[in-house]
Amino acid sequence: MNRVHQQPPVALTIAGSDSGGGAGIQADLHTFAAHGVHGTSVLTAVTAQNTRGVTAAEAVSEELVRAQLDAVLADFPVAAAKTGMLGGVRLLELVAEYGQDDRLPNLVVDPVMVTTTGDSLYAGDPAAYLGGLGPLSTVLTPNLIEAQLLLGRAIATVEDMREAARALATYGPRAVLVKGGHLERGDAAVDVLWCDGQMLDLAAPRVATRNDHGTGCTLASAIAARLALGHPLPQAVAGAKVYVTEALKAAADWHLGTGPGPVHHHHGRKSAAL
Ligand SMILES: Nc1ncnc2c1ncn2[C@@H]1O[C@H](COP(=O)(O)OP(=O)(O)OP(=O)(O)O)[C@@H](O)[C@H]1O
Ligand SMILES: Cc1ncc(COP(=O)(O)O)c(N)n1
């Protein structure tokens, strides 16, 4: 047996738990593992959730979030980090405190506010995201609804998405990816990336599936994993989009739960049980 394995880079997810395993910290750790990246995690909230929705949620205390961050950052060479559900302004500000002085390098900020099933995962002023984490973000990844909440204006077309990305970039992130998964139009799933002063449209074939739970978490984690692996930012985002499209395709026929189910994070790999 070949016992020589290269040491993996380390990524960190700061997110909530999804008991259904399709989104949140579970999706993030799957995605890191699928990329050959060692995943560390800081749990911000526990949700009781399945493919039909969220039935309960409780925030982890600030003290415990702080202790998790201290434990991970004191001992692991974190090469990239990702935030998901932060629940409210207090944890957002706490994470921003740790983001100072480049302690959370290559920071991907997914401003999780509402789930696909319509449940709210953020209580607070959306603008706090831009003030608190905007300038610390390597890339900010709002979906259509989140971009609308952040900017307080309607976004209905790809051109609106481009304008939104430009407007969000004025708050300080190096790049903004406005995701168009919820723009139910045409055969393509189009996201727009504003990065280093350039606009890029990232289009993928729209997969005919109801299993799209956790695609936003998966995309943001795949970007963080690729940044940890040393990919340049635009390539990390474009590669992550291809990974999500393949994960959607591979799970299109799954029936895990009666609502929108998870995607296949390990589509590229054989089972370890083989
Ligand atoms: N049916 C689909 N086919 C192909 N790509 C898709 C599909 N649905 C979503 N995507 C892609 O998945 C990624 C996540 O997009 P989306 O806009 O759904 O984010 P999100 O709302 O944060 O995700 P989530 O559903 O986890 O909340 C984007 O790259 C988007 O284009
Ligand atoms: C803990 C947690 N974090 C994030 C999401 C967003 O994912 P989705 O919108 O696909 O439900 C979620 N449902 N649960």
Describe the overall structure:
The chain has 274 residues and is α/β, with parallel strands linked by helices. The protein has a single domain, classed as UDP-N-acetylmuramoyl-L-alanine:D-glutamate ligase. Helix content is 34%, strand content 23%. Helix 1 links the parallel strand 1 (10-18) and strand 2 (38-50). Helix 1 crosses helix 7 (215-228) and helix 7 (215-228) crosses helix 8 (233-250). The longest helix is centred in the last third of the chain and has 18 residues, at 233-250. It is globular. The mean pLDDT is 95. The structure holds adenosine-5'-triphosphate (ATP) and (4-amino-2-methylpyrimidin-5-yl)methyl dihydrogen phosphate (MP5). Residues 23, 116, 143, 179-182, 189, 191, 204, 206-207, 209, 212, 214-217, 219, 241, 244-245, 248 line the site of adenosine-5'-triphosphate.
